[in-house]
Amino acid sequence: QVLLAESGGGLVQAGGSLRLSCAASRIIIFRLLDMGWYRQAPGKQRELVAAITSGGRTNYADSVKGRFTISRDNAKNTVYLQMNSLKPEDTADYYCNARPVSGGVDSWGQGTQVTVSS
Asked: Residue 112 and residue 10: Cα distance in Å, rounded?
């Protein structure tokens, strides 16, 4: 199973920016993983924020389109989430997900907390 470590969360004012990183280890070939960022706010279900396939196609939740950008650096085994124009409703724990393109078990990171103050 892939080991994922998120970083970059923190406290930011509304309108500010944060960049989350997710470094993967214990893998053979990072580029054969579809990667995603999910978030879970208190009392709510975990939801997909953004995803990027092994081929580089991206997908975003409607609530973050135009504000968030997901990217990956296969040489560094890392996926990023650039978050701009943050809103208080973006406050949540953010989790990195890895899914082998060949199928198999998903891997999850421990999460990083993002708090946006109004």
From this structure: 8
